[in-house]
Amino acid sequence: EDVLKEITEIGKITGHEENALALVKEIQSSIENLSLISNKTVYWEVWNAPYMTIGATSFINELITKAGGKNIFADLEQSYPSVNEESIIARNPEVIFIPSDSPVTVEDVKNRNGWQDISAVKTGSIYKINADITSRAGPRIKDAILLINEDLPTLGIPTIIILIGLLPIPLSALFSSKGFNTSFLSYRRAY
User: Fold this and answer.
1) Could you say which of 31, 70, 117, 148 has the lowest number of CB atoms within 10 Å?
2) What three-state secondary structure class fits 54?
3) What pLDDT, on a 0 to 100 scale, did the predictor assign at position 79?
């Protein structure tokens, strides 16, 4: 929600309010049209030494919720709390996300001592997810939600986007002398 407000504010400041509102409406529409039937529990690993995850106030918590999942550490108020391994195992996530820029592999997670009893490990629901899209609040939140949504099991939705990302674009690139620039939204590169 904060990102959408910021897009609107930047549009106002730069004299491109109509275009900013159109982009916000497009993002909201895309999110509302998702089939959010999963409600799977999610552990998002920010780091592993010590274990760090996302709490209630992280924008990634909101992305997970919008994508149809439930963050297992949403009860923690910190944005990025440190947690212990026992609490991760006890909360038994059904899906585990690891940012793509982490040196940790899916095999590393599977081989952690005691993690074999976690539902996500048993079902193979451990995913490296594009950190470039999911770790930065901005106009690409729609893409982040779609990526998360695709990896939540039992959705039955064909994969349309397979770990793809947008080229890094500065916020100033949203606007040109002709108004709001949305052309970058469709310019993608393979991940």
Assistant:
1) 117
2) coil
3) 95
